[in-house]
Amino acid sequence: MIIVMKRNYTPQQLEGVVDAIRVHGLTPHVTYGVETAIVAAVGEFHIPALDPFEILDGVETVKRISQPYKLGSRQAHPENSVFPVDGFTIGGDDIILMAGPCSVESRSQILETAHAVREAGANALRGGVFKPRTSPYAFQGLGEEGLEYLAEAREQTGMPIVVEIMSQTQLDLMLKYVDVFQVGARNMQNFNLLRALGETRKTILLKRGLSATIEELLMSAEYILAGGNKQIILCERGIRTFETATRNTTDINAIPVLKNLTHLPVVLDPSHATGDANYVLPIARAAIAAGADGLIVEVHPDPSKAVSDGKQSLKPEKFAEMVKQVKAIAEVMGRQIAPIKKPTAAGW
Ligand code: PEP
Ligand code: MN
To answer: Where are the alpha helices (DSSP H) in 24-169?
Structure first.
């Protein structure tokens, strides 16, 4: 249920509404607008009528939220969620570019990639150190050593780092290094992990599961929101269909559908969505044209030698070309690529 406060509501009236929500066994979540405030009341308790809230002082309207994802829905929060990540703001007019290798393989590989993508215009550096591989015999990632290299790359380039977390047992270690936690497709419904991330106040990049519906993706985001962490970026990364010509099928529909259903920012990963470097540029362009707030793209200095996902990784020159094309599409959409953070005398 959402309770919209009157324009001239007082702090005491808002407190009265929050208390009443608690009395009914529900949890209040307040969103402050420019002139009013919206209070979402979330929980299992079933209230037969809306009247107990309608009659409270300072209340304008009371509505039920029809969607099962209460906090993520646009009904509860009509404005886009806009929030800062170290160096940029996501969810507004700026388009965010996150780029880097599938896996961190060595110090020189991540430093070389970081400088190359930064030069081309990337806002954030991605790189996996705990890899969810289909085979237990395939490269599983460098672990903490990889985090050290990523931290050095951040130090040198100023880009925040986006790293996949596979289990809550990795949380304490990763909190020391990571700016944005990526939840991979295979972990989209790892509810214990989602709850643990909901307790942090770090930005979460939540990827859609291989066969997950849009509603299931939003319900997973709800686990994080319910813990009080509102900094979530949703990521479409292709879904499994009967088509075998590409690794996955880009659900381009998901972008405008998600933008309609939720206030959370939405990005696309054209690398995993296509599985082929030849198709990454056209799908990246399509994503921005469809209204995505950003892209996360795999880039490797020598894709033929990559230990994971080489086939879908762009060479740095190709990534630079992608940035140019995406910039042109962004302008048509009345948007721009987020500016790159500049160092100050004190460093980044
Ligand atoms: C990745 O980003 O390298 C990755 C494993 O992605 P996904 O979870 O989308 O497969
Ligand atoms: Mn990958």
So the answer is: 51-54, 107-120, 144-157
Residues 21 and 142 in one domain: no
Name the residue of 235, 251, 269, 274 whose CB sits within 8 Å of the most ligand 1 atoms, as the mutation to test its pocket.
Answer: 269
Q: Determine the distance separating the centroid of ligand 2 and the alpha carbon of 169, expressed in angstroms.
A: 21
Is 80 exceeded by the pLDDT of residue 49? no
Pair 58, 87 in one domain: no
**45 pLDDT band (50/70/90 cuts)?**
low
Write the residue with the smallest CA distance to atom 3 of ligand 1. Answer: 102
For the chain, the C-alpha Rg in angstroms (whole number) is 21
- List the domain range (segments joined by +) for residue 57: 2-63
Can you give the pLDDT at residue 298?
Answer: 98
Collapse the DSSP code of 63 into the 3-class scheme (helix H, G, I; strand E, B; otherwise coil) and give the result.
strand
Q: What is the DSSP letter of 72?
A: T
Q: What integer pLDDT is reported at residue 316 of this predicted model?
A: 98
Contacts 24+ apart (CB under 8 A), 108-111: 109/300, 109/301, 110/146, 110/149, 110/150, 110/152, 110/153, 111/149, 111/152, 111/153, 111/156
In a domain, 42, yes or no: yes
Which-ligand-closest: CA of 273? 1
CATH no. for residue 37? 3.30.70.1140
Convert the pLDDT of each residue in 214-272 to its tens digit: 999 999 999 999 999 999 999 999 999 999 999 999 999 999 999 999 999 999 999 99
Q: Write the residue with the smallest CA distance to atom 9 of ligand 1.
A: 185
For residues 56 and 195, state if they share a domain: no
In this structure, are residues 27 and 36 in contact, taking their beta carbons and an 8 Å threshold? no
- Pocket flag, ligand 1, residue 237 (CB < 6 Å): yes
Pick the residue whose CA is nearest to atom 6 on ligand 1: 184
Total domains in the fold of the chain: 2
- Supply the pLDDT for residue 263: 98
Tens digit of pLDDT for each residue in 300-342?
999 999 999 999 999 999 999 999 999 999 999 999 999 987 8
Q: How far apart are CA 108 and CA 104, in angstroms?
A: 10
71 belongs to a structural domain: no
Q: Is 128 a pocket residue for ligand 1 (Cβ < 6 Å)?
A: yes
